[in-house]
Design a protein that fits this description.
Layout: H1 22-36, E1 44-45, H2 47-54, H3 58-70, E2 74-76, E3 82-84, H4 89-113, H5 116-137, H6 144-159, H7 165-185, H8 191-206, H9 209-229
Antiparallel strand pairs: 1-3, 2-3
Helix pairs in contact: 1-3, 4-7, 4-9, 5-6, 5-8, 6-7, 7-9, 8-9
């Protein structure tokens, strides 16, 4: 299964985290390992090995993997166990289409309802994202992990005033599955993606819905093109 590291124990930082179960922590860890490519597409997940690696019982592990199967990140193979979902051009394009539909809809709702606090979230998120992108463009690949986190935080901030928990949760899941393909491509998209983020930032503060939607469509499609150009997806 190619398990290269031990799961780190998380230390609760606030009261809300005190109720988090071991299963919740392991679910998040396995999910992250799939998205980051540590668990490669098509890899068999051997329950006994995974049990030791993630320090959790087999029964809890089965429940976690079943939850991940509902997100199409894992395939359940009946009595044969589980494997990481394969990567394909077809799924990449389907995820791109779905992300575009969800994000452009959420943008319209968010721009209409956004408050001054919403604008503040966008400013803060873009500041961190732009700083990470400058480092990457300067050749500092060590900031890739930061960029992945800040990229989602920025896009999340843009749509965070949409007032729909279901829409946000669905978009988050699709965004992560789309991100898995970028992690498989193993390269930063360069200046064009940073320019898209800066333009989207400016359009959000102007509440220009149609222009922002056009940027999102182009941004997502250029992501698909980048992944396919890497030659790592069939």
């Amino acid at each position: 299964m190619g398990l290269a590291h031990k799961t780190e124990k998380s230390i609760p930082k606030n009261a809300g985290e005190l109720s988090e179960t071991v299963s919740d922590v392991v679910f998040r860890q396995i999910r992250q390992d799939i998205i980051s490519g540590i668990l490669a597409p098509g890899a068999k997940i051997k329950l006994e090995q995974a049990k030791e690696h993630y320090s959790i019982s087999v029964s809890s592990l089965r429940e976690i993997l079943s939850r991940l199967a509902m997100e199409n990140l894992v395939l359940a193979e009946g009595q044969r166990g589980f494997e990481v979902s394969p990567a394909s051009r077809k799924e990449l394009e389907e995820l791109a289409d779905l992300r575009t539909v969800l994000e452009t809809h959420a943008v319209a709702l968010s721009f209409e309802a956004g408050t001054l606090e919403w604008e503040g979230r966008i400013v803060a998120a873009h500041y961190k994202l732009a700083a990470a992108e400058r480092k990457l463009l300067g050749g500092d690949d060590s900031r890739t992990v930061d960029w992945v986190r800040y990229d989602w935080e920025f896009h999340q901030a843009i749509v965070s005033a949409c007032n729909s928990t279901t829409l946000m949760a669905t978009l988050s899941s699709v965004f992560d599955r789309f991100l898995r393909y970028h992690m498989l491509a193993r390269s930063f998209r360069g200046k064009d993606v940073a320019d898209d983020h800066r333009l989207l930032f400016e359009l959000a503060l102007k509440r220009d819905v149609e222009a922002a939607r056009a940027v999102i469509r182009r941004h997502v499609q250029s992501g698909v093109d980048h992944v396919l150009a890497s030659g790592r997806i069939n």
